[in-house]
Amino acid sequence: MASMFSSSEISKSATTLFSAYASFAGSMMLVRSMANELIPHQLRSYLFSVFRYFFTPLSPNLTLTFDERFGMSMNQVYEAAEIYLSTKISPKIERLKVGKTRKQKHFTIALEKGETVHDLFEDVKLTWRFVCIMEGQKPHSEERRVFELSFNKKHKDKVMDFYLPYVLVKAEEIKNQDRVIKLYSKQCPVEDDGRNSGPWGRNGSSWGSIILEHPATFDTLAMEPDVKKMIIDDLERFLKRKEYYKKVGRAWKRGYLLFGPPGTGKSSLVAAMANYLKFDIYDLRLSSVRSDAELRRTLLSTTNRSILLIEDIDCSSEVLERPIEKKNYRQEEPVKSGQLTLSGILNCIDGLWSSCGDERIIVFTTNYKERLDPALLRPGRMDMHIHMSYCTAHGFRLLASNYLGIDSSKYNPFFGEIDGLLKSTEATPAEVAEELMKNEDANAALQGLVNFLKRKRDEGNAIKNKPTDDGDGYEEKKNG
Ligand SMILES: Nc1ncnc2c1ncn2[C@@H]1O[C@H](COP(=O)(O)OP(=O)(O)OP(=O)(O)O)[C@@H](O)[C@H]1O
Ligand SMILES: [Mg+2]
């Protein structure tokens, strides 16, 4: 097709355009020099700033940023965004972080650094971006992880009032669908769900997690049925009472002290509680905490709907042998900073930690209740003291059914003898379970248990004040 303009016509138009621009620029310079002469300096700069304001194009967008940390705690919106966005992956995304543990049903997907996700909420278009920024000087530099959310400014209220709460609710739903229970501990170096978690980096108060593999449930626990029922009812009541706790001005937390000899199922009960509630467990070894300040940081980095477990509190001799200022135990600051004290532990539990977390359960376990500091035992500190006792006839029946598939409602020639032996012998459920596992043949296994119990009795382990089957197991047992 022939060109519509000849080359001479183009060069003519260009010349005309150029001279028009030159005359515009010249007149602007003239205006500027007149303004310089006529208008005082301050008024002039004010007028220029007004001009600039009106003629600089304004960005129509607003960007909200969500840091991984919010003060000392985890940022709930960050966590929710991470989970929610894993369900919003579009084909445009180029890099994703994917992982799965044996126990997880589905893959865990997380955004890689710099990736963007688009979302639509009613009529609002939203863009999420995952950003990682290195901050501070090497080698102490730390990675700051941030989610950025951009959208048109005019939707600010809608995003704040409706979209963000929607993201929080959705994330909670997703979390519950594929919920695996995690066991956190301070020694564990890896965060194994593949998400970009682990807020405390290398500063000594980080938790690592593994999936809780403990199969214990209330059904497999050999305990007196009424004690078991009492614990389940207590947990249920606790879960339902959010509003009640708020009304009476108490932190929404519950404390249990489990005491009893080794192998009676204290740790198994904690696992059963976690499996029942679908709460994560934070296993806190006091020996791994160096100071009250570190303890506070550590506790603040735990999440809601969790069980804080402090095992063998009596054996934390390092803690208990340190000076304990009972008079001062409610003070915010420890008596000597830089040390871990019992007062610091109680402070964290009663005060700071309990008031900033929701749906928390605290469990202390001990083999020796009598060795505990009275400050720990005073009424109101732990809501329930649960005695885990030696194996009773009822506990034995549950284990026999679990381990050997024996129907305990039917007559069994061994049961009478075993019941009698259990009354006069201190055998833990762990010991009984171990005997039952030794043989696949039920009769042989039961005979093995009879022999074991007789040996124990003959070794002189008979007891005087062993709780009977009709005892509730909740009362403290006095070993004679
Ligand atoms: N009450 C119980 N019901 C069923 N199994 C039990 C019970 N108690 C112990 N066991 C079995 O014994 C094993 C050890 O028990 P567990 O670790 O729960 O005892 P513990 O009271 O925490 O002991 P420790 O004081 O030494 O920590 C469990 O894995 C479980 O198999
Ligand atoms: Mg234990």
UniProtKB/TrEMBL annotation:
<dbReference type="GO" id="GO:0005524">
    <property type="term" value="F:ATP binding"/>
</dbReference>
<dbReference type="InterPro" id="IPR003593">
    <property type="entry name" value="AAA+_ATPase"/>
</dbReference>
<dbReference type="Pfam" id="PF00004">
    <property type="entry name" value="AAA"/>
</dbReference>
<feature type="domain" description="AAA+ ATPase">
    <location>
        <begin position="252"/>
        <end position="392"/>
    </location>
</feature>
<dbReference type="InterPro" id="IPR025753">
    <property type="entry name" value="AAA_N_dom"/>
</dbReference>
<keyword id="KW-0547">Nucleotide-binding</keyword>
<dbReference type="InterPro" id="IPR027417">
    <property type="entry name" value="P-loop_NTPase"/>
</dbReference>
<dbReference type="InterPro" id="IPR050747">
    <property type="entry name" value="Mitochondrial_chaperone_BCS1"/>
</dbReference>
<dbReference type="GO" id="GO:0016887">
    <property type="term" value="F:ATP hydrolysis activity"/>
</dbReference>
<dbReference type="Pfam" id="PF25568">
    <property type="entry name" value="AAA_lid_At3g28540"/>
</dbReference>
<dbReference type="Pfam" id="PF14363">
    <property type="entry name" value="AAA_assoc"/>
</dbReference>
<comment type="similarity">
    <text>Belongs to the AAA ATPase family. BCS1 subfamily.</text>
</comment>
<dbReference type="InterPro" id="IPR003960">
    <property type="entry name" value="ATPase_AAA_CS"/>
</dbReference>
<dbReference type="InterPro" id="IPR058017">
    <property type="entry name" value="At3g28540-like_C"/>
</dbReference>
<dbReference type="GO" id="GO:0006950">
    <property type="term" value="P:response to stress"/>
</dbReference>
<keyword id="KW-0460">Magnesium</keyword>
<feature type="region of interest" description="Disordered">
    <location>
        <begin position="460"/>
        <end position="480"/>
    </location>
</feature>
<protein>
    <recommendedName>
        <fullName>AAA+ ATPase domain-containing protein</fullName>
    </recommendedName>
</protein>
<dbReference type="InterPro" id="IPR003959">
    <property type="entry name" value="ATPase_AAA_core"/>
</dbReference>
<keyword id="KW-0067">ATP-binding</keyword>
<keyword id="KW-0378">Hydrolase</keyword>
